[in-house]
Amino acid sequence: MIRSVVRGFGAALPKRVLTNREMEDIVETNDEWIVQRTGIRQRYIAGEGETTASLGEAAARAALDRAKLTPADIDMIIVATSTPDNTFPATAVNIQARLGMHHGFAFDVQAVCTGFVYAVATADAYIRGGLARRALVIGAETFSRILDWTDRTTCVLFGDGAGALVLEAAEGKGTIADRGVLTANLRSDGAHRDKLYVDGGPSTTGTVGHLRMEGREVFKHAVGMVTDVIEGAFNATGTTADDLDWLVPHQANRRIIDGSARKLGIPLEKVVVTVDLHGNTSAASIPLAIATAAGDGRIKEGDLVMLEAMGGGFTWGAVLLRW
Fold first, then answer.
1. For the domain 180-322, what is the CATH superfamily, name and number?
2. In the annotation, is 155 catalytic?
3. What is the pLDDT of residue 9?
4. Which of 182, 191, 205, 226 pairs with 134 at a CA distance of 20 to 30 A?
């Protein structure tokens, strides 16, 4: 059978680092409070000329370089983002143009923090269906542009950045020993939409709006939802937490990450954590974490890796792949 195998990875971050100490000059907060409740110590903030598309392009080029491929080798681009450069066209089309691609097809997916998991699952379906051989899957965000910088409950949490994977069709034997995407488990429940949302949009207010969140409600649901889809991925492949080499979670909150790992029986030393460095970068957080852990040699060929996320909507999902 056809598997979608990771050929390359890349990441891009804005130039500006905003530390917790600097946040104390913006809102009434302090480093100890932020670290204790979230695990975040700093985040990157996009400056003039830095956009979702420019960060996504940089991450894409890094992934292509690592894969020893060029844009001419890519058939499709999927960008997971909730902060596009424009209402339309898609940021993926913008990145396609920036890469000098005049072939193939490109589109965005919007599932907020779960966006990259949805995008990987979507690319895998296109590859297995024979509609593409190689795909660029990008998670890119500039959440700093939709934050209310007077709301200390949200503005301390989020940051900007981008990460990318190159997926390529490869022959597999149909077993869990195959390299590539082994299964995906996606969920959503729109009944929770008002717990994490942006209070603007083209069809309602005609404005971009600001992010609003009921933090306690999100936290209350997060661990249960995440463990549900991870257990679903284990059940679909006949694997268990003992088989897992790495858990790469959405980097929203250190307490959610640790709570999910404990509930699943996954040792914390098998969990990739970058929330302290990047904050919550929404759809960019998983590919940024992958690039960090694969770049420093922790994730290596043959490792069994679980990606998981939960975000606004609510959306949540997991992808199990062999590196």
1. Thiolase/Chalcone synthase (3.40.47.10)
2. no
3. 99
4. 226
